[in-house]
Design a protein that fits this description.
Helix content is about 10%, strand content about 10%. The protein is largely without helices or strands. It has two domains: about 30 residues, no CATH class; about 30 residues, no CATH class. A hairpin with a 4-residue loop joins strand 2 and strand 3. It is elongated. The structure holds iron/sulfur cluster (2 copies). One iron/sulfur cluster (SF4) binds next to loops. This is DUF1540 domain-containing protein. It comes from Urechidicola croceus.
Length: about 80
């Protein structure tokens, strides 16, 4: 199953300084479109190893959680 955390303009590679370089309009986290293209670095970081629930009692699929896996319960880790 393909699961997406949040496909919006803030994690789209077409965003630059609050402007969509494809459509040449001002956008925000409230927007997205069919041309959405996830930032390459986000594509690489979204798996169980970057999930705050990994190896915890809150993991939705503790028997399957591993590198390269992802589920709808993925949650970002706190950044100090
Ligand atoms: S291409 Fe679409 S999703 Fe990406 S920044 Fe522009 S409007 Fe947003
Ligand atoms: S299975 Fe889901 S909740 Fe568990 S670590 Fe992976 S992404 Fe997070």
């Amino acid at each position: 199953m393909s699961v997406r955390l949040s496909n919006n303009c803030t994690n789209c590679s077409n965003l630059s300084g609050g402007l969509c370089t494809l459509h040449e309009i001002s956008v925000s986290e409230r927007h997205t479109c069919d041309s959405f293209s996830m930032l390459p670095n986000l594509k690489n970081m979204l798996d169980c190893t970057s999930c705050s629930r990994y190896e915890s009692a809150n993991c939705a699929h503790p028997d399957k959680a591993s590198a390269g896996m992802l589920c709808a319960s993925w949650a970002p880790q706190a950044i100090a």
